[in-house]
Amino acid sequence: MSTYAPASVTFVRGEGSWLWDTEGRRYLDCLSGIAVTSLGHAHPAVAEAIALQARTLCHVSNLFINTVGPEVAATLDRLLGGGGQVFLANSGAEANECALKLVRRWGGQAGHGRTDVVCANGSFHGRTMATLAATGQPAKHEGFQPLPAGFRHVAYDDVGALEAAMGPRVGAVMIEAIQGEFGVRTPGDGYLAEVRRICDQAGILMVADEVQTGLGRTGEWWGFSHDKVMPDIVTVAKALGNGMPIGACWARARVAGAFRPGDHGSTFGGQPLAAAAARATLGVMESCDVPALARSAGSRLAAALLRAPGVVSVRGRGLLLGAVLEPGVSARAVTALALERGLVVNAPDDTVVRLAPSLLISQEQVAEAVETLSGALATLAGG
Q1: Is residue 217 within 8 Å of 33, Cβ to Cβ?
Q2: C-alpha span between 79 and 286 (Å, rounded)
Q3: Exposure string (b/e) for 2-16, b if CB count within 10 Å is 16 or more?
């Protein structure tokens, strides 16, 4: 179906931070499938785990237990500090859908009808009907009305606006640590701590959408960790399977307990093949200390981008960065020219070039990426 714009390149192979197209041409991938292949393409440990599991057991349905999914859930719970429960899904949208259903169930059980969710303008939470309603981008709503009710939107990084949105029907605030799909917008220090304070004062849940920012991408295991807070519900996907489709919704045990058997499910959620990829991915991430790698490489990349022609500022943290361009330079034109020259980046809007390379990217590859991007910027700025 015509849901995507026509692509100019077809990729057929990947290895580490490199991609090859149908013509055999090589590209440096600094997008990672939009923050998905955080260990690079065809990582040996993940590839071997998938192959071994494919020869062992791929699927038994959620009518039975397999041994792999629970290991992934236990690891995620440990990385989140423990004391929670996990629902395994197939994507970030499904993880967020689970979170929204859990908020409804929790708020309804409280007996006060606290089922509304406050989200931020510019947010992106998915393409299902509920996650689209949660998404704070009206242009994406066009053509799909009426959307599910019960969602309110306020200005991002505005504590006063969030406080004003509180009311007796509000059951949760759903927030991103960085708005990756809206120009890599990064809130000020302490904003998430204020969100936590407001939720505590109102007696409601804080839901952290970590689909793009989680698992080391920002230089911490979780984007919310920069403000030293702990949400009640956390969603994760993208990097979890390093390319295999898997997502997860974690919640504190007291919140997760609102679900009862039959309340939610997924035919493929937690199935052994995807879970084997996630188990291997998490193992490599921990052994390599990917948050530290993201901090180090991200610092070098951000500093180099600030020296590039036409770049006025750099947003983001770790290896989720947005190069903000000077007026008159089209980010979409820059990314198209960079692709012609062998560099994969993208433009979440026409003022920002987003970079989300593998967390294992080398210093040499960082230098090559900036050199290629700088050349594209210089060409367009000069033209």
Answers
A1: no
A2: 10
A3: eeeeeeeeebeebeb
Residue type for position 153: H
Q: Measured between alpha carbons, how far is 305 from 316 in angstroms, rounded to an integer?
A: 12
Give me the amino acid identity at 102.
Answer: L
- Cβ-count burial of 106 within 10 angstroms (0-12 exposed, 13-18 middle, 19+ buried)? buried
E-assigned strands of 16-114? 18-21, 26-29, 84-89
Give per-residue pLDDT as tens, 82-127: 999 999 999 999 999 999 999 999 998 755 689 999 999 999 999 9
Q: Edge-to-edge strand order for the sheet containing 346-349?
A: 311-317, 320-325, 352-355, 346-349
- Rounded Cα–Cα distance for residues 283 and 274 (Å): 14
Distances (CA, A) of 276 to 213, 241, 251, 331: 22, 8, 22, 38
Q: Is 124 a catalytic residue?
A: yes
Q: What is the pLDDT of residues 19-60, one digit of tens each?
A: 999 999 999 999 999 999 999 999 999 999 999 999 999 999
| Catalytic residue from among 157, 209, 227, 232 | 209
Point out which residues pair with 116 in neighbouring strands. Answer: 170
Which candidate, 223, 219, 193, places its Cα nearest to that of 208?
Answer: 223
State the catalytic residue, choosing from 124, 151, 182, 224: 124
Q: Copy the structure tokens of residue 116.
A: 């509304």
Give the CA distances from residue 102 to residues 170, 250, 322, in Å, rounded to whole numbers and listed in that order: 14, 10, 33
The Cα angle at residue 348 between residues 16 and 145, in degrees rounded to 5? 125
Token pair 């939720």 is found at 199
* Number of helical H runs and strand E runs in the chain: 13, 15
- What pLDDT score was predicted for residue 160? 98
Q: How far apart are CA 13 and CA 19, in angstroms?
A: 6
Of 29, 87, 116, 238, the catalytic one is: 238
| CA dist., res. 176 & res. 210, Å (int) | 7
pTM exceeds 0.90 for this model? yes
Look up 289 and say whether it is catalytic: no
- Res 383 pLDDT > 90: no
**Residue 228 bears catalytic tag:** no
pLDDT band of residue 381 (cuts 50, 70, 90) is: confident
The single-letter code of the amino acid at 353 is: V
